[in-house]
Backbone:
């Protein structure tokens, strides 16, 4: 039996390529394994643990392996046990939060917490912050609980004193932080950030406790090191001090979580933080074809803040990435849907295909065209567009406007955005409505002191009732797309999310804008229809439970795509302002570029990247700078792809594009045809070459300024 085990173990290293093998057998001192996309980083981690144990360098309980998800921790444990053929039950394998919660359960009493402390999730945190805002006079300046949590988390994860948190005008972060911490301490509770910060406090204040873990862990291994924040790295730096054996595996080119606290400098400055570090590069990619990797490399090489590395593969050749240049987001979605249909009809399974986008709002138009083509799909890591909370909130307002008796919609929106109306107030209102045999909204008008409510509560309810009346009156005199815009401003929905300032809130605001665009688009397509028709279509689009069976095309954001791989990948919306995403603050372009790199390297065999000339409201867009960073010879186009397919099958291509109009023939007064806006008249021409634009008037759409190379205009003779 022993001989068999040794035989299996000896063969373990034979399964590694030379770079992987070198990283595995280097056990002494600190080492950084720069694992490029698809290069086998998990294999290196698991084989290294197996190697350490089989060489007798440590017992299982003397190894600490840290991951970022419970799933990754479970897979690592399972793979190690599979390699060794034995249980490693005493080995510490887990997420940062799980590992250090375990430490606090044993020693948290030194900080004033007993071992039964509660761990508060985001919903619990929000409840506390809302109570603080309501009851603490010193927090009268704060009207956004989500923003408050962002401030608190920034203080903790970045290890910054509250007084050093700036940029909040009249905010008082120190008082907010102190009040919040006091509430948690009184409840014997910790939040997720505390599970990192409190152990660091524990070790710093009690060196004898730190020494226990420093002695115990002879070897520390860390997965996804590029995603660590300041607190996590400080914990690792403290734990490695005695044995000084740490292996960090990660890829700085895939660092895409700066917006939630990850510090890229942790991996870039590894050698400074862990003196004597050796650096190993895993550059052989086992996932993608050479054609895909060349495009990815051409883009990521433009980043300055990175460790140099060049991916290569034995999968030489392969189809070039296909560039789809669409007129607008409708055409982009239509071409993608038809291409997916073609791929499925020629043998691809739907679950081999994924569509990525930068913001959740982009899924709406894609979902619509996939449904039109009868293509089953699923939203990975998120909800279908019309099922998202902010969309359902807006829909509830619109439903209440056309149906004042809709008590479900009333209950949904009367308290959101927050307007000081609580559950007790609504309970009293319902009692009044029941006693007077009225609908709830009717009962608002009938409220008086006999209802048992304080005058302040009555005034708030009547204010809400007045809002609905105002919206209802507006609906009678205006088109429903204008009503949608008016409702967003008057209800405070858009203002609420924009004031919050978080990445999640920005995404919600984008979804609301996309809903507005959907209403405008529907109105233009069906001018004879009304709000009731639009709401009915929205309800039917969201009712797609029948698609949940069988093979499904995957739709997801690029952030959700990390760690996944698909034979066929579409990346949409490659336009400056969308990808890279540009908001009021200047974005980290290098992080956006890394996000594009992550998306490209998910593709195994076929990659499509698309951009549009127009998106929402007829504004023309500039192609993403990332597209310009890919040499033209590395890209194919949908036209050339279809031409090759046509020659191969001797059939007509499905996606013939209208050739770009020769702008040299433009002159004021020319009549041209546009695929979306119809016939139009040229008013003026500007610029030359790539930047050439024309201004035209279209009946029903007004004046549009179009970028010639995307407009695909036909001269009407």
Residues:
């Amino acid at each position: 039996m022993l001989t068999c085990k040794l035989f299996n173990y000896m063969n373990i290293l034979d399964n590694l390529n030379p770079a992987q093998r070198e990283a595995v057998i280097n056990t002494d001192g600190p080492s950084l394994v720069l694992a490029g996309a698809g290069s086998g980083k998990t294999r290196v981690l698991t084989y290294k643990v197996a190697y350490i144990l089989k060489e007798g360098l440590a017992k299982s309980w003397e190894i600490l392996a840290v991951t970022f998800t419970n799933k990754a921790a479970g897979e690592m444990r399972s793979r190690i046990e599979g390699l060794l053929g034995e249980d490693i039950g005493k080995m510490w394998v887990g997420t940062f939060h799980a590992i250090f919660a375990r430490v606090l359960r044993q020693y948290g009493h030194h900080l004033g917490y007993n071992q039964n402390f509660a761990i508060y999730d985001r919903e619990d945190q929000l409840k506390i912050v809302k109570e603080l805002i309501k009851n603490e006079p010193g927090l009268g300046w704060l009207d956004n609980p989500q923003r408050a949590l962002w401030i608190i988390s920034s203080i903790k994860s970045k290890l910054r004193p509250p007084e050093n948190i700036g940029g909040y005008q009249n905010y008082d972060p120190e008082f907010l932080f102190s009040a919040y911490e006091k509430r948690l301490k009184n409840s014997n509770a910790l939040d997720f950030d505390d599970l990192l910060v409190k152990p660091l406090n524990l070790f710093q204040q009690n060196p004898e406790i730190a020494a226990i873990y420093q002695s115990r862990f002879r070897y520390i291994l860390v997965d996804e090191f590029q995603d660590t924040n300041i607190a996590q790295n400080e914990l690792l730096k403290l734990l490695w001090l005695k044995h000084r054996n740490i292996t960090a595996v990660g890829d700085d080119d895939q660092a895409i979580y700066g917006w939630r606290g990850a510090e890229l400098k942790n991996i870039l400055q590894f050698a400074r933080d862990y003196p004597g570090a050796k650096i190993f590069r895993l550059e052989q990619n086992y996932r993608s074809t050479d054609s895909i990797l060349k495009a990815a490399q051409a883009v990521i090489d433009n980043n300055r803040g990175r460790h140099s590395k060049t991916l290569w593969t034995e999968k030489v050749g392969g189809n070039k990435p296909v560039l789809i240049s669409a007129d607008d987001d409708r055409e982009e979605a239509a071409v993608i849907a038809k291409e997916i249909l073609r791929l499925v009809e020629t043998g691809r399974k739907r679950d081999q295909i994924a569509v990525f986008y930068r913001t959740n709002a982009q899924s709406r138009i894609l979902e619509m065209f996939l449904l039109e083509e009868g293509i089953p799909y699923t939203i990975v890591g998120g909800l279908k567009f019309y099922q998202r909370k902010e969309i359902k909130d807006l829909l509830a307002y619109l439903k209440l406007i056309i149906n004042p008796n809709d008590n479900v919609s009333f209950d949904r929106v009367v308290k959101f955005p927050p307007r000081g109306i609580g559950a007790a107030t609504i309970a009293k209102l319902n009692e009044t409505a029941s006693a007077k045999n009225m609908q709830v909204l009717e009962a608002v008008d009938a409220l008086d002191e006999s209802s048992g409510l304080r005058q302040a509560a009555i005034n708030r309810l009547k204010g809400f009732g007045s809002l609905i009346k105002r919206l209802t009156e507006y609906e009678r005199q205006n088109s429903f797309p204008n009503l949608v815009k008016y409702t967003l401003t008057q209800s405070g929905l858009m203002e609420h999310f924009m004031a919050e300032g978080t990445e999640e809130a920005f995404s919600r605001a984008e979804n609301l804008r996309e809903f507005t665009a959907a209403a405008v688009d529907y109105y233009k397509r069906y001018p004879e229809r009304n709000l009731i028709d639009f709401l009915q279509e929205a309800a039917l689009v969201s009712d797609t439970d029948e698609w949940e069976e069988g093979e499904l095309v995957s739709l997801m954001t690029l952030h959700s795509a990390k760690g996944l791989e698909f034979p066929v990948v579409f990346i949409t919306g490659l336009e400056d302002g969308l990808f890279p995403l540009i908001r009021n603050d200047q974005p980290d372009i290098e992080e956006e570029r890394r996000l594009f790199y992550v998306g490209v390297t998910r593709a195994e065999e076929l990659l499509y990247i698309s951009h549009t000339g127009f998106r929402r409201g007829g504004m023309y867009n500039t192609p993403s700078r990332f597209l310009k960073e890919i040499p033209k010879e590395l890209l194919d186009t949908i036209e050339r792809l279809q031409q090759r397919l046509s020659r191969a099958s001797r059939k007509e291509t499905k996606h013939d594009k209208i050739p770009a109009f020769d702008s040299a023939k433009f002159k004021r007064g020319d009549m041209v045809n546009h695929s979306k806006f119809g016939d139009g008249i040229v008013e003026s021409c500007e610029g030359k070459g790539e930047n050439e634009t024309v201004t035209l008037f279209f009946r029903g759409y007004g004046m549009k300024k179009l970028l010639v190379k995307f407009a695909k205009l036909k001269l009407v003779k």
About this structure: The mean pLDDT is 85. The radius of gyration is 29 Å.
